[in-house]
Write a structure and sequence with these properties.
With 227 residues, the chain is α/β, with parallel strands linked by helices. It has helices at residues 11-22, 52-60, 85-113, 133-153, 194-204; strands at residues 2-6, 26-31, 42-46, 65-70, 116-121, 158-165, 216-219.
Length: 227
């Protein structure tokens, strides 16, 4: 079984790729950075996902793809009056446009084969947060895409879901673009671990999750509990 994982060279994407490899999947990693995984069943395409044509070429070059996980991401913060159009465009291209182009190639193939799993890595911030409007908008778009695509392919044996973590222990937390604010710890009392997100994704790719589709699953350490 072959799974494509975007953003596979670091953070959540790397953890997902490693989890899938441990579970017997073959993994094709798509990332602008060099490969960070050395495994016999891992291949790597060094691709700038913000280049839609390059993303399409990388996806189209692979056959028999059974799963697609979109974990590539970047965070830029900004409040009203200081919103950076270039930052917004970067996040839209990476988070939304790239997976739209890739899915447009792969989901019809999955539907024809009557087998396939798609998981998009969203964010709790998609519900809205001060200073994160551009980022939140792109992550909210992933939920809309997933629900729409799920409706199109649900009868063809293909599922499409979103996994939305709260603040996660990755290098993104050290990004200079967000040094002005510290991450908010979930009620759990610690950051979410990448391997916890990876385990959730692995389940959604399994046969046991065949009836779960169009869902936004929160891995949030209690952040979504009523207050």
């Amino acid at each position: 079984m072959l799974a494509i994982v975007t953003g596979s060279s670091s953070g959540i994407g790397k953890a997902i790729a490693q989890e899938l490899l441990a579970g017997g999947w073959s993994v094709a990693g798509f990332d602008i950075a060099a490969a960070a995984i050395d495994h016999a069943q891992h291949t790597h395409a060094r691709v700038d996902l913000c280049d839609g044509d390059a993303a399409v070429r990388a996806a189209a070059s692979l056959s028999n793809v059974a799963a697609l996980v979109h974990a590539a991401g970047v965070l830029r913060v900004g409040s009203l009056g200081n919103l950076d159009a270039r930052a917004g465009e970067l996040m839209w291209r990476l988070h939304v446009e790239s997976i739209t182009r890739i899915a447009n190639v792969l989901l019809p193939r999955m539907a024809e084969a009557r087998n396939g799993r798609v998981v998009l890595i969203g964010s709790r911030v998609a519900q809205g947060k001060a200073g994160r409007s551009q980022y939140a908008a792109t992550k909210a778009a992933l939920v809309a895409l997933a629900r729409s695509w799920a409706s199109e392919v649900v009868a063809k044996g293909v599922t499409v879901n979103v996994v939305s973590p709260a603040a996660t222990e990755t290098a993104m937390l050290d990004d200079p673009a967000r040094k002005s604010e510290s991450p908010v710890l979930p009620p759990l009392g610690r950051l979410i671990r990448p391997e916890e997100i990876a385990a959730t994704v692995a389940f959604l790719l399994s046969t046991g999750a065949a009836a779960i589709t169009g869902q936004d699953i929160q891995v949030c350490g209690g952040s979504s509990l009523p207050r």
